[in-house]
Amino acid sequence: MKVLKLSTQLHKWIALVVGLQVLFWVGGGLVMTAIPIETVRGEHRAVEFQPGPLALAALPGPEEIARRAGVMPVRAELRTTPRGPVWTLTPAAGEPVTVSAATGRPFGPMSAGEASEFARRAYRGEADITEAVLLTTAPEETGRTGPLWRVDFADREKTSLYLSPDTGEVVTRRSGVWRIFDFFWRLHVMDWNDGEDFNHPLIIITTALTLSIVVSGFILLWIRISRDVKIARATRRTR
Predict the structure, then answer these.
(1) Which residues of the chain register pLDDT less than 50?
(2) Under 8 Å CB-to-CB from 41, ≥6 apart: which residues?
(3) What is the pLDDT of residues 141-170, one digit of tens each?
(4) Listed residue (101, 111, 58) closest to 81, CA to CA
(5) Radius of gyration of the chain (CA)
(6) Cα–Cα distance for residue pair 69/139, rounded to 1 Å
């Protein structure tokens, strides 16, 4: 009886404390499994960029590009972007520098019209563009730093494409579906700041308490089943 009473009290009070978070776990898990991850990522709205061949003979060599850019790189990457071929030069210390592969200089400022055109090429669908705005600071939802162009589309998901102001490349896609998913993810991992930390002390303690609910529940179930079996046997003997 002492074990039964202790298990009942433990089960009841801990369930009262963590019950709401368990509801968030189950509800959030349902939402996250019901929405295809491809939809969350906006892959159904994406058109893959098809780079053209690089005219290497017409471009300055990497040594000349590094000299013009004033960078001593430990790594250099040449690629095609919507604004043309670029070199990304990574120095031993500091941030990578992206310059035009034709001039060795950064591209000029990108206009709203250019940003809209590049976003339109990267978008799958017929929705109109509602806004193209240069953000001086990247929003938290992008997971990026520095300025970005955001181009919004009037589709049912409220898709937003974030573009590099240097190269016109789409660096990430966000939508209303992604924001719903992100909201439930943060509830799920109990990190309401940025949803990045899923092994912090609070979630570990809550998970341990939830485990105690499950264990005490099994103890209660076992005790009650055993009691019911004894009563059933005793009833048969008295007949």
Answers:
(1) none
(2) 173, 178
(3) 998 989 999 999 999 999 999 999 999 999
(4) 101
(5) 29
(6) 29
Structure tokens at 61: 């060599």
DSSP the chain: -HHHHHHHHHHHHHHHHHHHHHHHHHHHHHHHHHS-HHHHHTGGGB----PPPP-GGGSPPHHHHHHHHT--EEEEEEEEETTEEEEEEEESSS--EEEETTTSSPPPPPPHHHHHHHHHHTB-S-PPEEEEEEESS--GGGT--S-EEEEEE-STT--EEEE-TTT--EEEEE-HHHHHHHHHHHHHHT--SSS--SS-HHHHHHHHHHHHHHHHHHHHHHHHHHHHHHHHHHHHHH-
Q: What is the pTM of this model?
A: 0.77
Residue 47 has which token pair?
């058109």
Dig out the tokens for 6 from the structure.
């202790």
What the block records as the tokens of 143 is 């997971």
Count Cβ atoms within 10 A of the Cβ of residue 26 and give its class: 0-12 exposed, 13-18 middle, 19 or more buried. exposed
Q: Rounded to an integer, what distance in angstroms lies between the CA atom of residue 120 and that of residue 60? A: 31
